[in-house]
UniProtKB/TrEMBL annotation, chain A:
<dbReference type="InterPro" id="IPR042177">
    <property type="entry name" value="Cell/Rod_1"/>
</dbReference>
<dbReference type="GO" id="GO:0008360">
    <property type="term" value="P:regulation of cell shape"/>
</dbReference>
<keyword id="KW-1133">Transmembrane helix</keyword>
<feature type="transmembrane region" description="Helical">
    <location>
        <begin position="7"/>
        <end position="29"/>
    </location>
</feature>
<keyword id="KW-0133">Cell shape</keyword>
<keyword id="KW-0812">Transmembrane</keyword>
<feature type="domain" description="Rod shape-determining protein MreC beta-barrel core">
    <location>
        <begin position="125"/>
        <end position="242"/>
    </location>
</feature>
<dbReference type="GO" id="GO:0005886">
    <property type="term" value="C:plasma membrane"/>
</dbReference>
<dbReference type="InterPro" id="IPR042175">
    <property type="entry name" value="Cell/Rod_MreC_2"/>
</dbReference>
Automatic annotation (TrEMBL), chain B:
<protein>
    <submittedName>
        <fullName>Rod shape-determining protein MreD</fullName>
    </submittedName>
</protein>
<keyword id="KW-0812">Transmembrane</keyword>
<feature type="transmembrane region" description="Helical">
    <location>
        <begin position="118"/>
        <end position="139"/>
    </location>
</feature>
<keyword id="KW-0472">Membrane</keyword>
<keyword id="KW-1133">Transmembrane helix</keyword>
<feature type="transmembrane region" description="Helical">
    <location>
        <begin position="73"/>
        <end position="106"/>
    </location>
</feature>
<feature type="transmembrane region" description="Helical">
    <location>
        <begin position="151"/>
        <end position="171"/>
    </location>
</feature>
């Protein structure tokens, strides 16, 4: 009887200690968001190949079904594409003229336009529509040059940005995640705003700057390039509900697409090296011996002129 | 049914090997929850967060089936793995899984074991409290999340519970028979 009581007390103490440890971990995560980054990267490397293998037969099956569908719809599709080509040719002529004008204006204004740089093209292995965190896994990691904070773009538009990178795989934060914020421009009005996720299938347009011109259903949103991560001009989505809050459907979905581009951060903040304080104070002998602060001690290293040998 | 094993020093090498290998069953609940956690990271071709909290349901079910094999400290470690795999701040699932294992153990000791329907209702209540506490703990870790996606997840957990019970029950029968191991 006493033994049972003692065991119950020990069990309660252990349970309390374990829960307290969990709360301490949460406080550490609050103070240091990068806590455990290397362990997370290793976990990404474990999970990504697993789902890559599991989904392979389903991808093959899907490809087969799509192939059959494409075969039967080939004529209709060819006609639709011909119509699209005619429309696109007209748009291309306008865009070429715009490009020339833009180049001339850039030269006049001495505008320095950073170039987009492709880091890797990779396959989306899994996109998790989690209730708390919404992420996707891609099969490219540090070995391919991927680093946290790089934009990920599909053929139809922006997908998100990298947050964790393993050796051969990375985790992306999707646009629908509540932590996601993307600076955008409304294409029709040029108004700047932010697109954020709220865990649901649609995005929310917030923090509109400037004149509050009413938006219309179908208004396209493009990245503005502000913030230095996402390159400007990438489609983000289009307005589906212009009421309050303004709801946006993402231009590209991470589910069901094959490959994405991972690009370098468009205009990363320059890393500025800390400059040493300039001082006339004498440098300690120990610092001279180890060769530290060489520039400052060069004069002191010169041969002595006081006659000592 | 075999009698208790002889003391370790009296065993011959073969008996000793089979004695140690026979202990793999003790890790089965933890392995089952790990499998459920991996399953929870599976890609679903849906735009709503409908993947149920399989890891939490696994911890709950094993805490009722085999309380001795799902102590709070083990649930804590499994919660850390859940945080890792689901890319959540360390401590959210760890704290909640440990609290669930501790609560179920206390409840079963005090009020005894119950029928499947009662356990189902209890699982529904626990997943609802888990969702609400997840919001609070995520806010504590500076990652505020809205309620709506968690409400969807709670809804799917209503239907996922019998499936998790069936899976864990099958494993329980295969490894331990219809009895508690400890």
């Amino acid at each position: 009887m006493r033994r049972d009581q003692n065991l119950a007390i020990i069990g309660a103490v252990v349970t309390g200690a374990v829960i307290a440890t969990g709360l301490v971990l949460l406080l550490i995560a609050r103070v240091s968001p990068q806590f455990g980054a290397s362990v997370r990267a290793a976990a990404v490397d474990v999970v990504t190949p697993l789902w890559s293998v599991v989904r392979a037969p389903f991808d093959g099956l899907g490809k087969g079904v799509n192939g059959i569908g494409d075969y039967f719809g080939a004529v209709g599709r060819a006609r639709a594409l011909e119509a699209e080509v005619i429309d696109l040719r007209a748009r291309l002529q306008v865009a070429e003229a715009d490009q020339i004008a833009f180049r001339q204006l850039s030269r006049l204004g001495r505008l320095e336009n950073p170039q987009r740089r492709l880091v890797a093209t990779a396959r989306i292995v899994s996109a998790t529509q989690g209730a708390v965190v919404q992420t996707a896994l891609v099969a490219a990691g540090r070995n391919q040059g991927v680093r946290p904070g790089q934009p990920v773009i599909a053929a139809d538009g922006l997908i998100g940005r990298t947050i964790e990178t393993g050796l051969g795989s990375s985790r992306l934060l999707l646009l629908t995640d509540p932590q996601s914020r993307v600076p955008v421009l409304v294409q029709r009005t040029g108004q700047a705003a932010l697109v954020s996720g709220d865990g649901g299938p649609l995005l929310v347009l917030t923090d509109r700057l400037g004149l509050q011109e009413p938006l219309q259903r179908g208004d396209r949103l493009l990245t503005s390039g502000e913030g230095g991560i996402f390159p400007p001009g990438v489609p983000v989505g289009f307005v589906v509900d212009a009421g309050e809050p303004i709801r946006v459907r993402a231009a590209a979905s991470p589910r069901g697409i094959g490959f994405v581009r991972i690009e370098a951060a468009y205009a990363a903040m320059p890393a500025t090296a800390a400059t040493l304080p300039m001082t006339d104070a004498p440098v300690p002998v120990e610092a001279q011996r180890v060769g530290g602060i060489k520039g400052l001690v060069r004069g002191l290293d010169a041969p002595s002129t006081d006659g000592a040998t | 049914m075999r009698g208790p094993a002889p003391p370790l020093r009296l065993m011959n090498p073969r008996e000793r090997r089979s004695f140690w290998l026979g202990h793999w069953r003790l890790g089965l609940p933890a392995l089952a929850v790990l499998g459920l956690l991996l399953l929870a990271t599976a890609p679903l071709p849906l735009s709503l967060p409908l993947m149920p909290p399989l890891g939490l349901l696994g911890v709950f079910v094993w805490a009722t089936f085999q309380p001795g094999l799902m102590p709070p400290w083990l649930a804590f470690l499994l919660g850390l793995v859940a945080d890792l795999l689901l890319s959540m701040p360390f401590g959210v699932n760890a704290t909640l899984f440990a609290a669930v294992a501790g609560f179920v153990r206390w409840f079963e000791v005090r009020y005894g074991h119950h029928a499947h329907g009662f356990d189902w209702a209890m699982a529904v209540a626990i997943t609802a409290v888990h969702a609400l506490l997840t919001i609070q703990l995520m806010a504590l870790a500076s990652h505020p999340v809205p309620l709506e996606p968690l409400a969807w997840q709670w809804l799917t957990s209503l239907f996922a519970y019998p499936a998790v019970v069936a899976l864990c029950g099958w494993l329980q029968r295969a490894a331990f028979g219809a009895r508690t191991a400890t």
